[in-house]
Task: inverse folding
């Protein structure tokens, strides 16, 4: 070793001895800190959902956040499992509402909730986190319901689904760090039969029965002429001019009509609160009331009487039904439709009313046959296809369900019709009351013109 190298080593050793202890400690801390940072594991939280569907063999596995099950069809979820893994301590638990068993107990992660039986599908669920992960994350989840679609998002143990209303066919579960935004709206996350939320479920994204009644109340005036409600319409359009011409063609008669779209609540009316004799048009809502409130009392003989009352407007059949079932079910139907005794009298077999009131009755009739249904609804609503003397049925090629009423002379002299039009442009209720007895062609032309405005 040269003298120069030896001197350098001695100098370096001396400098090291002279360096402050704090500087040495700081350098050591930096190195230790770098080592600690490299070794720190990245935080991760993951879910895996396993699902069984009616009619499908085995379990389907889906990563958290993705669709588990399906979002179309009628195959319902019959059982599910949710597993948690992550660097954050804690776990997950969940419970399900089953069609014939009610709410299950909560089960731990990766345990089965549900029966795996097609006859006992899952209708709702609740999910919770436990331990440290519950302090740092929210668990969000939603359900896709048969006949409805997606619910809103629930979180941290809230119920999601449709108790006693519909089966779950798919669902999503997501973990979201606290302080971060929810994956979507919570609106309409849970429906329960018998509760106010059931009406929203039956509306299927449109207006509820109560909202439709309120919309109809905006149609006012016994001599108000042609008006729109719930929105605006240009009656100088091509369709509007045809409607005005159809009304003019009936100018010598008393005339009142009300039409309302069952999804939007928008409609048009002409003298909607003008009061006329209802005649046999009342039979339609009355038979609907029997099906809604006394379906269990309807045997083969009563079904035959209901059929003749609607299809050929049998007065004897209607009187027989009134004697057997009374006025009480009509009162219930009026309450269901938001109708007061001032608008019509429940104890009269053939009351006076306005086209607006008849439209309300048909909103309730439609709702009972197509939304809040029972085992006889499909049969009963079929009675209203092509009834005798319906100018609604005559005027339209679109499927309709209606019940006309007419009475020539005797101080009444009316030709009425009310029903639902199952249009591809959207289902709607139309009620027409007039003194144009026997004027089927002119009234059918009026209905076609109303349909044209609805489609416009």
Result:
């Amino acid at each position: 070793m040269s003298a120069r190298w030896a001197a350098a080593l001695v100098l370096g050793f001396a400098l090291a001895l002279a360096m402050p202890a704090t500087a040495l400690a700081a350098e050591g801390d930096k190195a230790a800190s770098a080592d600690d940072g490299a070794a720190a594991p990245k935080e991760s939280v993951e879910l895996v959902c396993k699902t069984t569907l009616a009619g499908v063999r085995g379990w389907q596995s889906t990563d958290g956040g993705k669709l588990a099950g399906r979002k179309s069809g009628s195959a319902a979820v019959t059982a599910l499992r949710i597993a948690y893994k992550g660097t954050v301590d804690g776990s997950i638990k969940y419970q399900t509402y089953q069609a014939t068993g009610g709410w299950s107990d909560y089960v731990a992660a990766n345990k089965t909730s549900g029966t795996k039986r097609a006859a006992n599908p899952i209708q709702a669920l609740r999910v919770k986190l436990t331990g440290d992960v519950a302090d740092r994350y929210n668990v969000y989840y939603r359900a896709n319901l048969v006949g409805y679609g997606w619910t809103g998002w629930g979180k941290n143990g809230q119920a999601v689904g449709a108790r006693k209303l519909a089966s779950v066919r798919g669902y999503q579960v997501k973990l979201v760090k606290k302080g971060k935004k929810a994956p979507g709206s919570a609106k309409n996350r849970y429906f329960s039969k018998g509760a106010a939320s059931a009406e929203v479920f039956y509306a299927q994204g449109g207006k509820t029965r109560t909202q439709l009644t309120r919309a109809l109340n905006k149609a006012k005036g016994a001599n108000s002429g042609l008006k729109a409600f719930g929105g605006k319409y240009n009656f100088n359009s091509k369709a509007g001019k045809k409607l005005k011409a159809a009304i003019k063609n009936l100018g010598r008669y008393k005339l009142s009509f009300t039409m309302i779209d069952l999804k939007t609540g928008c409609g048009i009316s002409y003298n909607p609160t003008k009061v006329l004799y209802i005649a046999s048009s009342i039979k339609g809502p009355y038979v609907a009331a029997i099906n809604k409130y006394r379906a269990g009392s309807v045997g083969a003989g009563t079904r035959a009487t209901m059929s003749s009352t609607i299809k050929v407007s049998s007065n004897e059949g209607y009187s027989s039904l009134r004697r057997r079932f009374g006025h009480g079910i009509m009162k219930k139907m009026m309450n269901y439709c938001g109708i007061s005794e001032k608008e019509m009298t429940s104890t009269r077999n053939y009351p006076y009313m306005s086209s607006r009131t008849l439209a309300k009755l048909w909103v309730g009739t439609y709702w009972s046959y197509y939304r809040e249904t029972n085992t006889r609804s499909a049969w009963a609503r079929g009675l209203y296809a092509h009834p005798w003397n319906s100018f609604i049925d005559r005027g339209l090629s679109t499927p309709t369900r209606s019940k006309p009423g007419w009475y020539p002379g005797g101080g009444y002299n009316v030709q009425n019709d009310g029903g639902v039009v199952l249009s591809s442009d959207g289902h709607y209720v139309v009620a027409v009351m007039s003194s144009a007895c026997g004027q089927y062609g002119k009234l059918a032309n009026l209905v076609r013109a109303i349909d044209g405005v609805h489609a416009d």
In short: Residues 45-201 form one domain.
